[in-house]
Write a structure and sequence with these properties.
With 213 residues, the chain is of the alpha/beta class. The protein contains ten helices and eight strands. Strand 4, helix 6 and strand 5 form a beta-alpha-beta unit.
Length: 213
């Protein structure tokens, strides 16, 4: 395995925004007349694409309306979002190795721009792809637009959908345990690699046989 490019998820992979997303989602559910979800329940039931999560609960409300409610509330919780440990060290490692670093995320542009600057993340990113509805369909565009060799590219994320997207694109996959989905859920997806965090992934990529300049 020779990895020269990484495609990174945002939430739960680079930043810790789990509780802010839970609180904002509960705000949306309350608007729809539904009870709030506990953190364990959210982690067990939340999925991407997000339309799948809402379709079984509030199919009578247009997805655009739900998104409007979410995006109006979410910035109020930005102060509670933190950069995950190992994120900045990992990004510096990728820059030193001259690796291509891409983001593939459902995060909205305002959040990415605001927090990307605050956490010093944006300067390390070769190109971000944000506001993605379905990563399994967008992955091909990312790979083709940037002429990425599938054998040398790895998708890194914390959710089943991230692993599904990487597999759909025919690239390597790494699940990290710093975010939304449990080890059991991620293991069931059959990723090529499972790491506790980006620091462990960095150690793996630092092996001479994995990363070459």
């Amino acid at each position: 395995m020779v990895i020269r490019n990484v495609i990174l998820d945002w939430s739960g992979t680079l930043v810790d925004d789990l509780l802010p997303v839970v609180r904002t989602t509960n705000h949306v559910l309350a608007f729809c007349g539904l009870p709030a979800m506990s953190l364990p329940q959210f982690r067990a039931e939340f999925c991407l694409p997000v339309r799948k999560f809402y379709e079984t609960r509030v199919s009578h409300i247009p997805q655009a309306k739900l998104e409007e409610i979410f995006l109006a509330e979410y910035p109020k919780h930005h102060a509670a979002i933190t950069v995950l440990p190992h994120t900045q060290e990992f990004l510096r490692f990728c820059k030193e190795r001259r690796m291509g670093v891409y983001i593939a995320s459902t995060v909205d542009p305002h959040t990415y721009e605001t927090l990307g600057d605050l956490f010093g993340i944006k300067s390390f990113i070769t190109k971000p792809y944000i506001g993605i509805v379905d990563k399994t369909s967008t992955i091909h565009h990312i790979l083709d637009e940037n002429h990425l060799d599938r054998d040398e590219t790895m998708f890194v994320g914390d959710m089943e959908h991230d692993i599904e997207a990487g597999q759909a694109g025919g690239i390597h996959t790494c699940a990290v345990l710093t975010g939304y989905n449990s080890l059991e859920k991620l293991r069931a997806m059959g990723p090529d690699l499972i790491c506790e965090h980006l620091g462990e992934l960095q150690q793996f990529l630092a092996k001479p046989e994995v990363v070459r300049g």
